[in-house]
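Dear Dr. V.,

Thank you for agreeing to look over these. As mentioned in my earlier message, I'm a first-year student in the group and I'm still getting used to reading structure tokens, so any feedback on how I've presented them would be very welcome. I ran two proteins. I've put each sequence directly above its structure. The first is here:
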Amino acid sequence: MVSRAIRLILALSAFSLLTSAANAEDLTFNVSGVFENSTTFVPGPTLSGDFNVDTVAGTINWASFTVGAPYSDTLTEDIYSGPFVYNEYTFTDIYLESVSDPNAFMSVEFLPSSFIGYSGQPLCDMSADCSIGSDGWIATGFYPDINDFSTTYVLESGTVTPAVPEPASLSLLLVGLVAFSLATTFPRRVARF
């Protein structure tokens, strides 16, 4: 009876590991940062949000970024994500449109040339080495009005951190049911006084 219970626990543990490994290619990352005005260099709105990457296919599953005051805008409409080539330099882009304002958009630039195997490399900002040679550098930008580029904001500093993954619900449920059944299956010893 004990060996049967041990085999059941091992089988459920293997199932739990396989279930979590099946989704290991989809990773979520948190983003935060601060913009500055690209012409006056005055500090601007903050950046926060997250995005999910299929690290096997190298694609963005979803993205949601929020630009703070004075705009307080959320950008989630994925126009394009993929490689961006400028001369011999390759970066990865996510272009997002505003949910509330059709004239506002954001170009999020990353250092790797692909999201395949992505593990949270930094955003292109004023402190990252996103050089495009003698032509300068490239950085993540927020454009409040596509018709007026005088109010363009460049990411001064930004961070990308992996989000803490939630355990698979089904595997947790199965482990809990097995533990409950094992606790009720074995007889309890009665203390004698």
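The second protein is here, in the same arrangement:
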Amino acid sequence: MFRSNRDAQTRLVLGRRSVFGYDLVVLCGLYAAAFFFADGRLRPLVAHIPDPALFAAWAGALGAVAMSLRGVYSFHTAGTSHGTTRGLWTNEMLYWHFGKPFSGTLVGVAVFILLKAAVPNGEPSTFTTAAAAFVLGMQDHEFFNFVKRVGEVIIAVPGPKPDKNVPPGAHDAAVKTAPPSDPAGR
């Protein structure tokens, strides 16, 4: 029994360290991309993509990595709290951590598209787009929920129009107080 608990603890520590290492590698890749873009070496490869779109994708990924690192710092393995406040680390979120930079990039591109739609006669500000992408890349779950709600409004299938003579909520109250019907149809 002691062996299995020790093995489980080792797996947790390895999972947390793997995420930390992965986040650092992605972060170094983002820094290298920014350096080579600023240096002019990457510009010819992406010349056809508007700068605000590139910065938004980059900032979304950066925000996502920041959130993943926050998770690594906020949770601890048993016996190693070191001032963390959230609780115990579990390996159930490994896919979330490893996919977070990619979903952050998607959010960054979506932010650019939405801001471009909001400013159809020009380019959205590069720094505004990047700042929004960074923040929403950190909170991609909230962003996807927001997009889902907007989609439900835009693509809503109209139902029957309410009767103007019936007060709001009266139909709901009538349904709740109606006697149950007999399943035999009597």
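From my reading of the second output: The chain has a mean pLDDT of 81. The beta strands are 75-76, 87-88. Does that match how you would interpret it?

Kind regards,
E.
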